[in-house]
């Protein structure tokens, strides 16, 4: 359900040459760079990088960084990295220096599949020669930290066999860990929400609503707080619908004054080959305007053109 697909009749060395020519001499042909890169899949872009290296003895990403600037540069360079390395870089930036970008950590770790998490951990190790879990633990605290560690294991159940007894038990355990308890048993929330399969947990949420009379989200808001609360809400959202979670993140990144460009870039790049069509559909229904139009009104220049190519079409 992605908007970006493999380019038919792909030729890596031809593309490498086209990019080389687009950056040769004084100034660069940004439109040529943009058109080529946004119409190739990530796998193909990685091959172009290799071809570029063997044809010109240069690093394509380094050349692109040199030729381009600002948000457009960030977007194009993000597209050139394999997804796991892109995620690794985002997380590295989120925890580097003073302060932490919790929203970035929440978005990536709450939404990725087991395999994507395993790939991310390996890419982080490869790129920075550091242990991702250790870095996250060193930069966060409390229940927020513990839940991030749970998610970093990438051990959510994936089978679609659902046991009704277990669904009822988990719903009851969540109720007893929160609403029916003086204080909150956070460990129980982490255990149930961190390991159950999506299908299982959706049924747990339905059952929970039935026995408690309120949606699990309302309980989380009432029982948990701070970044831990935000993380748990993101986990619940991604379990209900990843596409809806990202549609909402995109909307918030663009609404009001100013644009959260890093969020916008990260989501448009990371979802372009996975579920951009689903995100667009949810966006259209939920906000009564197309994602395409909102990007168009909110951004400018080559940056805008590239984002619109990744969006892949207008649903108005």
Structural notes for this entry:
- Keywords: Annexin, Calcium, Calcium/phospholipid-binding, Cell projection, Cilium, Cytoplasm, Nucleus, Phospholipase A2 inhibitor, Repeat.
- Pfam families: Annexin (PF00191).
- It is found in: Basolateral cell membrane; Cell projection, Cilium; Cytoplasm; Melanosome.
- InterPro entries: Annexin (IPR001464), Annexin_repeat (IPR018502), Annexin_repeat_CS (IPR018252), Annexin_sf (IPR037104), ANX6 (IPR002393).
- It comes from Pterocles gutturalis.
- The protein has 316 residues and is mostly helical.
- The protein is 72% helix and 0% strand.
- The chain has 20 helices and no strands.
- It has helices at 12-23, 30-38, 42-56, 60-67, 70-80, 83-95, 102-111, 114-128, 132-139, 142-152, 164-177, 186-195, 198-212, 216-223, 226-240, 242-254, 261-271, 276-287, 291-298, 301-311.
- α10 packs parallel to α15 (226-240).
- The longest helix has 15 residues, at 42-56.
- The chain is elongated, with a radius of gyration of 21 Å.
- The chain starts with 11 loop residues before the first helix and ends in a 5-residue tail after the last helix.
- The model has no long low-confidence stretch (mean pLDDT 95).
């Amino acid at each position: 359900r992605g908007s970006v697909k493999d380019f038919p009749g792909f030729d890596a060395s031809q593309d490498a040459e086209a990019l080389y020519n687009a950056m040769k001499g004084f100034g660069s042909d940004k439109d040529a760079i943009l058109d080529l890169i946004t119409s190739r899949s990530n796998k193909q872009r990685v091959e172009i990088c290799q071809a570029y290296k063997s044809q010109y003895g240069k690093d394509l990403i380094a050349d692109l960084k040199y030729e381009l600037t600002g948000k457009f540069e960030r977007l194009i360079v993000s597209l050139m990295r394999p997804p796991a390395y892109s995620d690794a870089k985002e997380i590295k930036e989120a925890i580097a220096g003073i302060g932490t970008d919790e929203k970035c950590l929440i978005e990536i770790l709450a939404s990725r599949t087991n395999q994507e998490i395993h790939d991310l951990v390996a890419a982080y190790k490869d790129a920075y020669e550091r242990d991702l879990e250790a870095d996250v633990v060193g930069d966060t605290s409390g229940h927020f930290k513990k839940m991030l560690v749970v998610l970093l294991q990438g051990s959510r159940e994936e089978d679609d066999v659902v046991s009704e007894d277990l669904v009822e038990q988990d719903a009851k355990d969540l109720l007893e860990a929160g609403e029916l308890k003086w204080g909150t048993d956070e460990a129980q929330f982490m255990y149930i929400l961190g390991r159950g399969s999506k299908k299982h947990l959706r049924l747990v949420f339905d059952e929970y609503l039935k026995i408690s009379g309120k949606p699990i989200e309302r309980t989380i808001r009432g029982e948990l707080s701070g970044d831990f609360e935000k993380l748990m809400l993101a986990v619940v959202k991604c379990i209900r619908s990843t596409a809806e979670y990202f549609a909402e993140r995109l909307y918030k990144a663009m609404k009001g004054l100013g644009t959260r460009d890093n969020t916008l870039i990260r989501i448009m790049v990371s979802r372009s080959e996975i579920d951009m069509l689903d995100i667009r559909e949810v966006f259209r229904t939920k906000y009564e305007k197309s994602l395409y139009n909102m990007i168009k009104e909110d951004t400018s220049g080559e940056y805008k053109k590239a984002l619109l190519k990744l969006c892949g079409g207008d649903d108005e």
